Design the sequence.
């Protein structure tokens, strides 16, 4: 039987047959610098940075990295909140031929140590508050140089090499590096797995540029390049923020309004002052804005396009947010392994609430059976969503077996259970490998379970996600104690706080005498989840 590759029918001026330029991300930046030299690339708490200034700073920082010994293919880690130094660091590493390894500032020491050992980065650029944490694990890693950035004085980090004013006064002696866009890795984007072991998705320059060009083609009817302002509160270390905010804005010559975190009052005041036109966000952000009693006082009507990802968007929230702002919310889907976006509700055709829309240009997709992964399912029938396209990763860093499981015959097996209608709109109906998504953060139950099992009183532990009105989902742990052992909900939560990022810590602990299991002794996570849902 001939294999069918499904491409959604496009309407309006969005074409499926687009050309992906073979260029690097620094070349993409340089292209925008030539088009928009004096335009602002970033606004950060009242301070502005132009494209020309950014490019000069990137080259000088790249030269600094070269003096430190960074060569093509070397990994350099970034652990920063959203700030201009993130842009300089990210593009500076790439210009020097290095591979960016993005780290969540909320990682625990254990998590940080694992990723740094896995990627073997020799240099890390981090926010100064995290300096004690990196020093505590540095001896177990390959890190030789630690660069700190302070936001206390905004553009004046502790290291002169990263201070914008100082960087621009240094001689530019950057030596360009020859990079192969299709084969050379640009970013290691770490993601969880079913074993609890973090995997580094290898995203090439071509993968990332492809997803940017796909995004532009999909949304070009709604955008005016060089004139948009992107509210950038999603973390840039997250693949969604990296592509939809940072790289896409730079490709279009737009301005990013950078915020270090989502603080509702600060976000509303920033919207009123800066008047952003584009707002990539997660549902909890839209929920918070919609429910603010005086939201109408903050001139929210400047926003015209909001793309929502990372978690399902409640239909009523979407309607209310659009009513209050006049903006259009388009819900999409993606994953780290695909740079990340593969699907979205189109601005040029019908939006279908409850779906993640149709495939991006040059993205083939189909639903296959769960048993063999080879039989294509008919419309309306559930199965695993598989994807093929130029944005799909090269593989997992140093994990050939995991790569072989995920990339098969050119298809990316997402692990997400979905169904597709006759028009190619996809609905995600089950979580990827039991993953929990809370406030846009991906949480893998195994990570939490391993910490719980370290507690001396715990015999069995299973972690699930349960609905939460604000976070989308929250973490619940179901525990069976060892015979004769005692502990409390507070003690277990405090134990988790010592070993896990704050967003992974269980908010609910339930004690049971036993857990449901299969006849071979495997814990039935799905049954526990269903029981918990009935109690809601």
Sequence:
């Amino acid at each position: 039987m001939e294999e069918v590759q499904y491409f959604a029918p496009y309407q309006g001026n969005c074409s499926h047959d687009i050309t992906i330029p073979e260029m690097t991300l620094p070349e993409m930046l340089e292209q925008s610098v030539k088009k928009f030299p004096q335009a602002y690339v970033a606004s950060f708490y009242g301070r502005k940075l132009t494209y020309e200034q950014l490019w000069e700073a990137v080259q000088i920082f790249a030269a600094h990295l070269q003096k430190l010994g960074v060569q093509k293919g070397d990994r350099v880690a970034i652990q920063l909140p959203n700030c201009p130094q993130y842009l300089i660091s990210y593009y500076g590493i790439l210009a020097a031929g290095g591979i960016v390894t993005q780290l969540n500032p909320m990682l625990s020491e254990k998590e940080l140590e694992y990723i740094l050992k896995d990627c073997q980065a020799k240099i890390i650029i981090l926010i100064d508050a995290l300096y004690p944490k990196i020093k505590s694990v540095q001896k177990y890693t390959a890190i030789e140089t630690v660069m700190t950035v302070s936001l206390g004085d905004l553009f004046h980090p502790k290291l002169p090499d990263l201070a914008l004013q100082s960087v621009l006064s240094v001689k530019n002696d950057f030596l360009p590096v020859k990079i192969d866009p299709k084969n050379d890795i640009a970013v290691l984007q770490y993601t969880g797995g079913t074993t609890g072991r973090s995997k580094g998705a290898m995203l090439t320059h071509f993968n990332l540029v492809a997803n940017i060009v796909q995004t532009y083609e999909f949304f070009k009817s709604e955008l005016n390049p060089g004139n948009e302002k992107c509210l950038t509160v999603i973390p840039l270390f997250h693949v969604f923020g990296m592509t939809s905010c940072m790289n896409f804005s730079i490709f279009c010559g737009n301005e990013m309004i950078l915020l270090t975190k989502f603080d509702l009052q600060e976000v509303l005041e920033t919207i009123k002052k800066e008047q952003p036109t584009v707002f990539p966000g997660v549902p909890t952000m839209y929920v918070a804005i919609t429910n603010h009693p005086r939201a109408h006082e903050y001139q929210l009507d400047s926003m015209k396009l909001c793309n929502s990802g990372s978690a399902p968007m409640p239909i009523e929230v979407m309607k209310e947010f659009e009513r209050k702002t006049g903006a259009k919310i388009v819900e999409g889907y993606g994953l780290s392994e695909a740079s990340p976006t593969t699907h979205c509700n189109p601005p040029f055709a019908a939006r279908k609430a409850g779906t993640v829309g149709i495939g991006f240009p040059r993205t083939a997709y189909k639903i296959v059976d769960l048993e063999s992964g080879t039989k294509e399912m008919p419309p309306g029938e559930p199965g695993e969503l598989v994807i093929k396209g130029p944005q799909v990763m090269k593989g997992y860093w140093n994990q050939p077996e995991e790569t072989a499981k995920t990339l098969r015959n050119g298809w990316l097996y997402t692990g997400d259970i979905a169904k597709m209608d006759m028009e190619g709109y996809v609905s995600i109906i089950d979580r990827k490998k039991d993953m929990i998504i809370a406030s846009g953060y991906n949480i893998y139950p195994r990570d939490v379970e391993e910490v719980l099992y370290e507690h001396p009183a715990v015999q069995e532990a299973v972690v699930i996600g349960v609905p939460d009105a604000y976070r989308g989902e929250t973490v619940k742990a179901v525990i069976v104690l060892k015979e004769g052992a005692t502990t409390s909900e507070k003690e277990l939560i405090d134990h988790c706080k010592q070993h896990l990022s704050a967003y992974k810590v269980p908010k609910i602990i339930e004690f049971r005498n036993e857990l449901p299991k299969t006849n071979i002794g495997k814990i039935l996570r799905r049954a526990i989840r269903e029981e918990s849902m009935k109690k809601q």
Observations:
- Residues 435-535 form a domain with the GMP Synthetase; Chain A, domain 3 fold (CATH 3.30.300.30).
- Residues 227 and 254 are 6 Å apart (CA to CA).
